[in-house]
């Protein structure tokens, strides 16, 4: 019998094909959200093991700073504008406020009837907004036990993006609801998503003139708010695999680069890419990771891109094998040529 050559032995997939820096210790379960402080290189991760963890990135290393627990999987996080406080929400139907000060315990500042999918802090209003599967948005003054206002949604809150005064909510049945936060109790505009499948993620344009919408069907839509700019709206395919691109994967996160105004997408195909919407082209594509990328974030100056590689729960608990599951958080050093637009020649 002929022995197989060493070269024919199947090799395990490279867990870190982009040679990114790994944040340790690795979470014991899937990562649901990542968020950087707006003022420092502090990174917060929420995970399905009920944990919220914070690291400080210092000179090429990550130092664990603190952690808190929820009573159920945690799905989202947000920072105050001064970077001193973190909010986290999840399947225990609560939002906790966590001052990053030694010895200060987190307190519950928001309660919903169903899991909390998204949170954002609006510094200009000194209010927290939380979006839930109970089909409401709730605005909170964290000094008061009751919401300042409850906004009914047509369906569950699947996605939320806020950059004052613009807020966009992705709800069920492809509903996109736009708010002018100068008048937060009134819908500014309600529209149908340009995609035929569920909204997965949103991101507001840096100039606040529109937004990106990503769907579970491997597409991103570029939407302008002004009807006179409708000719600039378009959608494009991404996060597809197979020889003919017939394997379609969810677009899981959208993030604008804070300097170059290009944007990043991550997908369930295990890839992430940087795109230029003005020139309708991809700036940089990165190597495929061995598991989905459910979430990502740029730091304040755009020099770091954090992304998680783990099971994304898109196929439910039946496809989740805890004994085999691995979760990783990586930091990728962003070079100028990775994210700066490459303008087309005329």
TrEMBL record:
Keywords, alphabetical: Repeat, WD repeat
WD repeats, residue ranges: 24-65, 67-108, 109-150, 244-285
Pfam families: WD40 (PF00400)
Domain of life: Eukaryota
Residue span of region Disordered: 1-22
Coiled coil start-end: none
Signal peptide: none
Protein name as catalogued: Uncharacterized protein
């Amino acid at each position: 019998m002929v022995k197989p050559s060493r070269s024919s032995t199947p090799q395990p997939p490279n867990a870190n094909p982009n040679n990114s820096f790994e944040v340790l210790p690795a979470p014991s379960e899937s990562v649901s959200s990542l968020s950087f402080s707006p003022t420092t290189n502090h990174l917060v991760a929420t995970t399905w093991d009920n944990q919220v963890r914070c690291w400080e990135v210092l000179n090429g290393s990550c130092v664990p700073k603190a952690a808190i627990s929820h009573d159920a999987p945690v799905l989202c996080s947000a920072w105050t504008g001064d970077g001193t406080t973190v909010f986290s929400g999840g399947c225990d139907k609560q939002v906790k406020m966590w001052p990053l000060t030694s010895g200060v315990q987190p307190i519950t500042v928001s309660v919903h009837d169903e899991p909390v999918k998204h949170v954002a802090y609006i510094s200009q209003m000194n209010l927290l907004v939380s979006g839930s599967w109970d089909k409401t948005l709730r605005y909170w003054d964290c000094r008061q036990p009751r919401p300042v206002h409850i906004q009914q949604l047509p369906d569950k809150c699947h996605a939320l993006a806020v950059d004052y005064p613009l807020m966009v909510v992705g709800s069920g049945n492809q509903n996109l609801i736009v708010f002018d936060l100068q008048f937060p109790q009134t819908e500014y505009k309600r529209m149908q998503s340009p995609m035929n499948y569920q909204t997965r993620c949103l991101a507001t344009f840096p100039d606040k003139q529109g937004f990106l919408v990503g769907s579970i069907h491997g597409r991103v839509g570029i939407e302008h708010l002004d009807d006179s700019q409708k000719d600039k709206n378009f959608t494009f395919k991404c996060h597809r695999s197979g020889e003919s691109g017939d394997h379609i994967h969810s677009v899981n996160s959208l993030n604008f680069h804070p300097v170059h105004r290009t944007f990043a997408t991550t997908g369930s195909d295990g890839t992430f890419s940087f795109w230029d919407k003005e020139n309708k082209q991809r700036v940089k594509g990165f190597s495929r990771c061995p598991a989905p990328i459910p979430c990502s974030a740029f730091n304040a100056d755009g020099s770091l891109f954090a992304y998680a590689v783990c099971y994304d729960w898109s196929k439910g608990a039946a496809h989740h094998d805890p004994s085999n599951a691995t979760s990783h958080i990586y930091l990728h050093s962003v070079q100028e040529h990775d994210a700066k637009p490459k303008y087309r020649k005329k």
